[in-house]
Amino acid sequence: MPEPIRIFDTTLRDGEQSPGFSMTPEEKLRLAHPLEELGVDVLEAGFPIASEGDFLAVQTIARECRQTSVAALARAVEADIRRAGDALRPAARPLLHTFIATSDIHLQHKLKRTRAQVVADTYTAVRLAREYADEVEFSAEDATRSDRDFLLEVLAAALEAGATVLNIPDTVGYSVPHEYAALIAFLRERLPGVDKAILSVHCHDDLGLAVANSLAALAAGARQVECAINGIGERAGNASLEEVVMALRVRADALPYVTRIRTEKIYPVSLQLAEITGIGVQPNKAIVGRNAFAHTAGIHQDGMLKSPLTYEIMTPSTVGIASSQLLLGKHSGRHALQARLEQLGWRVEREQLDAVYQAFLQVADRQKLVADDCLRDIALGAGLAQLPGPAPAAHSSAVATQ
Ligand SMILES: [Zn+2]
Description:
By secondary structure, the chain is an alpha/beta fold. Helix content is 43%, strand content 15%. Helix 3 (52-64) links the parallel strand 3 and strand 4 (69-75).
């Protein structure tokens, strides 16, 4: 039986904190509903002490999103925790998320606290948080650069104070997969009572390893993954929700874990985030990029027309994308050109195909992609006849293959 994995979405908190992605409370709420429908287990809505707007956003989302746990972030200090607890009051399933750094670098340069003080702060913070919520997550910020024995000590204090989730963030995106998995395995082995809590991972993508690190940690015993739509987040971003979820789904044979995510809603949510923030993903972004299901090379297009299995490991409809695209350019072959012309309503006789293809190549040499209206001119120039039926459409360059 595959093991269930909790998806903790931090698009509205860590994601929203990053440059260019800040959202008003109304915008957060607009995205919270689709995230809930997507099936995230935990929806981290904000950092209430940070601003009045964030308090309001968490409070409103807590009131309106009843199907998911709603989380609020707080530093391990009283004022933060009380503010987060107040914002979460209307929640059906509140989760208070408190954190403190555990690496010497952060203790010395940022917190100016001793190790003993950090252990005490952790205990007090989690105790107080439990007064506001049955579910309390404790994060050891910069865990991957922390002394392991000290990390154990802090996590033991958090457990003793009643933490239900222990998060081990790779805050600066420094880990590599085998090392991160070893850290999780170490904690599973050495932390007394670790089974009482869910082990969680939160990886940043500074070396492009956030998803790989998250997946490696699952094999070592982590059962919650923190991630964000389109991989947004501080600096290079968080592990991308869609990549984690689809890796688990497509490679269920190698990764025996399941999530509650309704994958066909992934693309609509990705688009909605881009619309709200005005920032889209790069074209070659896995799963949701414009080119993720686009094929231009002739050999690939020919294969796709024969069977999508040749060049696609998942169908676009699994993630909510209507169809694959065979984009016509100078690398496209006769087969794809003929298929598109016929879709547009033109009859291509065998003896005409060569001439049409040569005309097409002349255009394709001048421009990167040959759009449908150009194909129409080429068809007319070559004297192709129209197929019976509705007039040829000339507005889309997509070739549906599903
Ligand atoms: Zn983070």
